[in-house]
Amino acid sequence: MKSFLLIGITVILTVAMLFALLRTIKGPTRSDRLLGINMIGSLGTAFFAVLAVYLEEHWLLDVCIIYCLISFLAVVVLSRIHLEQAGESEAQR
Amino acid sequence: MIRLWIAAALFAAGALTIVLSISGIFRFRYVLNRMHAAALIDSLALGCILAGLVLMTWNLRFVPKLLVILAVQWISSPIASHLVGQMEVRTDADSCHHMKTEDQTSADSGPSRDTHAEPARTAVDFSDKEV
Fold it and tell me: How many beta carbons lie within 10 A of that of residue B58, not counting itself?
């Protein structure tokens, strides 16, 4: 039952990641795309944690912490880059 | 065995939250509304799934790291949402039309209109002018 539960939640997380990727591709504005990237990062964090428990390898949880921090850093850097670009284009006008 | 059943219930709650969140990001029309649906995954779904994993393993090697993951995600997710919202409000000139309530559209004058120090600095103009 344990492996059945873990595989079931993994399937749901994978399908949700695909839909978030669809939102990232379709998104009309850049904020929509950034939101999709943020969602994929959160779902990937949960995916890594489930995988660590399924394989019973506790070091995968360290990878999971690093993945969580890097996905947060990606959101921060992308939003800063976009804000700086918008500020430059406003200054040129 | 009772821990496994509680973990199964928590997993079901997490899966239901994920389904609601995915339907929310496709049904809402504006990005600040979609952020509400997307934040469900960051907070509630991840909390339910990691709590289920804690109950399922119940091992001293796994449980502290799972709690650290939950703490990191719960601290970093509001900051990321704030940055996405800030980016949308500063760069989208039309965002004030999406944020109007019925009171603001019906009222023709407001006392707070004169208090804008630098109206040209940001892209958002909160006045009620019809363009």
Answer: 11
- Residue pair A47/A15 in contact by the 8 Å Cβ criterion: no
Domain positions in chain A are 2-92
Closest by Cβ to A12, choosing from B15, B66, B90? B15
Burial class of residue B39 (count of CB atoms within 10 Å of its CB; 0-12, 13-18, 19+): buried
| Cα of B24 to nearest chain A Cα, Å | 11
Q: At what angle do helices A30-55 and A60-92 cross, to 10 degrees?
A: 170
Sign, CA dihedral A61-B21-B30-B78, equals negative
Tokens representing A72 are: 């947060």
Between B116 and A11, the more confident residue is A11
Average pLDDT over residues B75-97: 87
> Does B84 reach chain A within 8 Å, measured CB to CB?
yes
Tell me what ipTM this predicted complex has.
Answer: 0.89
Res A10 pLDDT > 90 = yes
Q: Which two tokens stand for residue A79?
A: 């939003």
Residue A73: CB atoms within 10 Å: 13
Contact call for residues A39 and B48 (beta carbons, < 8 A): no
